[in-house]
Structures are given as C-alpha cells and as structure tokens.
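Sanity check. The docking grid for zinc ion depends on where the pocket ends up, so I'm generating a full predicted complex first rather than guessing from homology. Inputs follow.
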Amino acid sequence: MTETPDTGYQVLARKYRPATFADLIGQEAMVRTLKNAFDADRIAQAFMLTGIRGTGKTTTARIIAKGLNCIGADGEGGPTTDPCGVCQNCVAITEGRHVDVMEMDAASNTGVQNIRDAIIETVSYRAAQARYKIFIIDEVHMLSTSAFNALLKTLEEPPAHVKFLFATTEIRKVPVTVLSRCQRFDLRRIEPEVMIAHLQRIAGLESAEIAEDAVALITRAAEGSVRDAMSLLDQAIAHGAGETTADQVRAMLGLADRGRVMDLFEAIMAGEAATALDELSAQYADGADPVAVLRDLAEITHWLSVISITPDAAEDPTISPDERTRGLVLAEKLPMRVLTRMWQMLLKALEEVAMAPNAMMAAEMAVIRLTHVADLPTPGDLVKKLAETPRPAGGPPSGGVGGGVSGPAPQARATGGAPLGGGGPQAALAPQTGPDLSVYPTFESVVALVEGARDIKLLIEVKTCLRLVSYAPGRLEVEVTDTAPRDLIPRLGRMLHTATGARWGISVASSGGTTTIQEQEQAAQKEAEAEVTQHPLMQAVLSRFPKARIAEIRSHAALEQEAAATALEEIPEEADDWDPFEDE
Ligand SMILES: Nc1ncnc2c1ncn2[C@@H]1O[C@H](COP(=O)(O)OP(=O)(O)O)[C@@H](O)[C@H]1O
Ligand SMILES: [Mg+2]
Ligand SMILES: [Zn+2]
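Predicted complex below; grid placement will be based on this.
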C-alpha cells in the first residue's frame, strides 16, 4: 500500500492503489499467467489490459512496469512479478518520474500527438537508466489512425528493449492488427464476497465504522468496480461520527428501502391497486424518485426470475437475509409467465415515465396497470371463455380483432405520401458505393434499425423529435422538434453507420416536416381503438372482463405475417402462442 504523509486528504481509491499483485484483488488468473510468463522468461512485447473502469488496469500496468525494471533491494535482481518497491527504479516509477517509463493517456487531447511523436522518436533509443523502455498507454482505443500506424510499425519489428502496456475499457475499438500482437488480459468485475472483504478491510484501516448491510449496498451499487466502490465508501464514511448505517448509504445512493419496494411489489402482484398506490405515494413523500422505484421493481422482477430458475443465485452476500427469504417465497409462487409480463410492462412503463410531463403520474398509471398482471387470465382460459360465449348475430366470421389497423398503415403516412417505395426513383439517388442500402426502402426501416440497436433513448428521441421531410436510402432530411437534444443527429448518424456500414447523409430542414412517428402512432392507435371497441367480439370481452383495456391491436394480416416470419411448418395447436394481453 502506498502510505501517504498526513498532509491533506487523499481519496481512498488513490490512497489504496495496490503497489504489488498481493494487494490486487479479484484478478488471480491474470496474476498467475503473468507470474508463469515472467518465471519462464517469456515476457510478451506488449500487453493489452481490458476491463470495465476501476478493476485494476492502470494499477496492473504500473506493477508490471516496476516488475520489468526492478533490480531488487540489492541491485542485482532481474524482471519479477514481485517488484521490491525500494530500488531506484521502483521508487521512480511509483512517483511517476522514471525517464524510461512513459505513461500516456490517449483520452486526453494533447496526448494523441505526443504519443505518436514519443513513439516514433524515442523507440529506437535504448533505455536510459533501466532494462526496458516502457510505454504505458491508457484508453488506447482512443488513439488516432496515424498513432495506431506508428504503433503498428514498432510492434511489427519491436526492439528488444521496448515494452508496451496498453489499457482500454473498449477492446472492440482496438484494431485487430494491434490486438494480435499483444498478450491480452481481461480484468474481471470483482465478485461481491471479495469486494465486501476489501471494503471492510479498508474501513478498518481508516478506523471507520460501517454497518455490514451498508457495505453490501455499496458493493451492489459498484457493480464490480473497485474504484467506484472505494469512492462510495469514501463518501459514506465522510458523513462523520459513529457507525455509517445502511439507511445513510441508501439516502446517499438515492435508493429506496428494498423492504418497501418488496411491499410494493407484493401489493402489485396481489392485485391490490389501492395498497400499491398508497405505498408508492408514501415512498414518493419520503423522497423516492418514481423512476427509481420502477427500476427497483424491474430489478426485483429480474432477480425473482433468476432465482426461480436457479435458487442458488439468491446466495448473494449483497442481499439481506430478509430480502432473500421473501424473494424465494415469491419466486416459488409466481409463474414465469407473470414475471416475464411484469418485466415487459415495467420496461414500457420506464419508457413512458421518461417521456411523461409528470413522472409520478406516469408511475401511478403504470402501477395501476401492473396490478392487473397477476390476475390476467391465461391465454388458454381466455380463448376457452370466448369460445363459450355465443357469437352475437351478424358478427363477422371468426378471426382476428379488427382489421388493417396496424402494421404497414402508419408507414405509408410516414413518408408523407411521397413516391418513395423501395427501388423507386429516390432509391436510385442513394449513394451507390458501399453496402446496399435499398434494403432500407422507407423511414420505417430506419426506425426498425434504431429498434434493433437497443438504444432506448435514441429510439424514443427518433420517434418524438424528428419530423420527416424526405427520405431515400442513405439520405435523410428531417425537421427537429424544439425538444430534440443537440447531439441527436450525430448519434443517429453514428448508429446508422454502425448498423449499415455506410455513412448516411442526414440534413436538418427548418420546415416541411410531417408528424413525428409518435404522433402518427398515437393517431393510429386512437382510430384503431375506436374501431375495435365497436367490434362484437371486443364487446363480449368487455362484458366478461370489465376492467380489460386494449393493450395492443394486431390485425389478422399482421398476425399472419408474423406467423409466416417465424417460419414454422404449421401454426402450432396451442393457443398459448396467441396472447391478446401480451405487451411487446
Ligand atoms: N483489482 C483491484 N484491487 C484493488 N484495488 C483496486 C483494483 N482495481 C482498482 N482498484 C482501486 O481502484 C483505483 C483505480 O484503479 P485503476 O487500476 O486505475 O483502475 P482502471 O485503470 O481499471 O480504471 C485504484 O487506485 C485502487 O484503489
Ligand atoms: Mg485506468
Ligand atoms: Zn524494485
């Protein structure tokens, strides 16, 4: 451990940066491999350390740098994975002032040019004082192409006295040509047990008192990053006198009490709307953020789904015994179908809350809707019941509810009626080089791409903030609403580039835009609902289930299309496949 003089306060994460592998937690596999390589005198030319923030990449790079140049207390030692910490090289590296060890951060603007120059200019000279000339490059994925090229040249014919230590949080952005010349180590998220022990040890060293469940909360929030955990611990114990409690940490993290979220969850599952609403508003009054409450509900739903499949997963030390017991009971009681539906509805609710003018109102609406989850009839039940209902005279032949109300209908409108069909005259205007973009004949195909990219925020913004002016594959002209975030267009551009491999031209017009997708969807939905509500079959449903709401409308044609798309030889017998309450 690096000891620090008593002058001034040093953040815990800094203060306890491991100086040796013995102090590094949770990365045993990497350390073992490194030891073997050093012992066998097969030290790679370049190392690539990757992993999420705060798992020990920079720390490891510095330990390796010391190990490579350490000469031991007696000045006789060779490369080691156990640097002595006292020789001139170790000391200088620890203090960041060794002439042969260059630490650079590719994420800083000034870094990039320097890195290129430093590598090109100095690589051919021997180390001045130590065995190796070492380049530590942090966030290496940020290097410019020219810097990578300079690097590659060196990596292709590496002088024996040069070593590279790269660290990155985004390994996929590192060129394969560079990757293939490195020994790669994937630093792992720290397991909860290991993290808890580490935090308790640090708290002990700091003579700070912190409750066990408070440490558990911090561990959970840190999601495997030691740096995050240490910063949270820092804040938590800075609160001052006496033992830091779980309540304090919860308040610090803006978390609702898990027990109370469980209460809410149980009320919802029991279908007790009034109790659920009371509980929600009580939590709101206590300062809970409605979005956080919904997120917690989603987390519990996910957790219950996991432990109902693997009960062992409940043995997580960050979960209190009380919560665990309640969870296991619930998991056993609730069918997976209910949990899955709850999950889907919560995701949708979170989307809505993000868009709603008043988050609490939206959360209340969501909770009311959710209370219907558990008591929804199974699709099987429903079909049976409907079959028993005598069909009103004059009703149309059997089949789907309504017709022609979903699917392609809004599509035609989205293009503003312009003749933009696939392969039409406009498609020919699309850039002809690169990937074939004619597979994206309409603006809807762009929306589908955004959907596929799983970027909910972007999807919502595309649906609510863009008014289409004109469309051709690869080319998009839009008007943006006042609410559109500044970076929406560049983000959409990047996403389209990633998804299609082509650069899309997106221009912003000041007028001429149609309605947003959201507006179109809402209009179509209204129309469809009005139509469907009149349908005799729907009337029958409503008389049987007065609380029923129209959650989704799918036309017969759309259902057939869907079935065809899944390409089963024949439509399976089980009614289970068709779930009129499904939220997708
Ligand atoms: N595996 C680890 N074991 C012990 N402490 C760690 C570990 N990883 C990170 N830390 C702590 O977090 C701080 C930052 O670590 P660092 O190595 O810079 O993370 P990274 O470079 O992966 O983002 C360190 O000073 C140390 O306090
Ligand atoms: Mg780092
Ligand atoms: Zn040393």
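Relevant for the grid: Residues 409-515 form one domain.
Also worth noting: The chain has five domains: 12-186, 192-253, 258-370, 409-515, 521-577.
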